[in-house]
Structure formats: C-alpha cells, structure tokens
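During the no-cost extension, the postdoctoral fellow (Dr. R.K.) reprocessed legacy sequence entries with the updated structure-token encoder. One reprocessed record is reproduced below for audit purposes.
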Amino acid sequence: MPAKLSVNLNAVAMLRNRRDLPWPSVTGLGRIALAAGAHGLTVHPRPDERHTRHSDLPEIRALLDDEFPKTEFNIEGYPTEDFLALVEKNQPEQVTLVPDDPAQATSDHGWNFVAQAAFLTPIVKRLKKGGFRVSLFSDADAAGVNAARDTGADRIELYTGPYGSYHSDSAKAAKELEKLGKTADAALAAGLQVNAGHDLTVNNLPALIKRIPALAEVSIGHGLTADALEYGMAGTVGRFLKACGW
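Re-encoded structure tokens follow.
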C-alpha cells in the first residue's frame, strides 16, 4: 500500500493568525483536504499558539469523527505535561514526539534516542497506555533506531528537511536520500514502522517512496500549502496523492 498522506494544517493556521479573523478556516481547509482523499490531518500546537491554536484541536477532532471517521488525527509536539494533557483531551490516533525548543520556527532535528531514552520511555509508555500510536521524530541515523524501538514507540518519523533542502542539487539530494533509506531499513528490521515529513514536495516524494516502499505515512504542510495557493487545496491533495503512488 502506498504511503498515506496526512495534511499538516500549521501553515494554514499561521496565515489565519496574521489577522484576528476566522479565515482561512483551518477546519474548512482540512475538510477540503479530506474530501479530496487525504488520509488524515496533522497539527503542531506550540505553547505560544503561533500556528495551530489549542482551540482548533477539538474542532478538528469533531470534523474527523463526524464526517471522515476512517481518517486519522496526528498531533505532534514536544512532550511537556501541558502537551500530554492536550493530547489526552483530544484523542488523536497518533502522537508524534519532536525535540523542539518552544522558540524554534519549525522542527529541525530528531531525538538523540540513546541520550534521551530515560526521558522518552515513560512518556511513550503513558501514551501507549492511553491507546495512542506513538511516533518519534528521527534524524537520518541508522545507529539510533534500536534505542528508539526500546522506548516502546511504534514508529519513527524521518526528518526529511536536509533532503528537501537539496532541491537544486541532485547529487547531494541522492546522498541524503540514501541516508534516509538506510535509516528506514534499520527501523523496519527493528520492528518499527516508518513515517516521514518536512519539506516534501511533489517533485521529491516519488524518489523517497521508491527508496522506502514500506513508508507508512508522510506528513506535509509547507510545500502542500504553498502549492494550494496555485492549484487549490483539493487539486493539491490530488497531486500529492499521485506523488505518493495512489
């Protein structure tokens, strides 16, 4: 089965937040994405709410439950107690833990699974006990995947930012792709499923899918939202689904 597409709504929320107005509608564009075939929605509710607001989460949860019950809600963030409480209140199908500092503009690195195992393991246990699938943000580093598995997580999400940044340098992109592929190979061998996200586009997705055919899910926000300005949300979701192999 091709990788599922989860549409990250943070860029939509950031545009809305430039004005004290209800548009563009985060849930409204989420509805369009799901109706066009997206398999789920992703949000990253940061503490300062500069992107997705905490008040968006119950609305998105209700949208999925009421209109698209076969789709999934993925909430990602740094696991503070406030974040964990937000997750437990809004009941996503998947929680993606990222090692972000609150001041970061966006996620830009994965966990050091060996060094942070003692921190992550009880958090993963708590989330698994709550019935959530847990994914851990990961650099392209095959050496860390066994430690990731030992936390009890279900998946890793490959940080594909460096791969996406080489959009005009095919040789460097190919090297980064192979690092991602080897990390995915190691993760799959360790019993973990593999997601991917960050700076993915319709142009670089096919090569990623070809190298990692067992990829479970891609979470895409910035590139997808940028394309939606040109092709519309429904048309853009169709383009990204095609790039994923659907």
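The two ends are 9 Å apart (CA to CA). The mean pLDDT is 96. The remaining legacy entries will be reprocessed before the final report is submitted.
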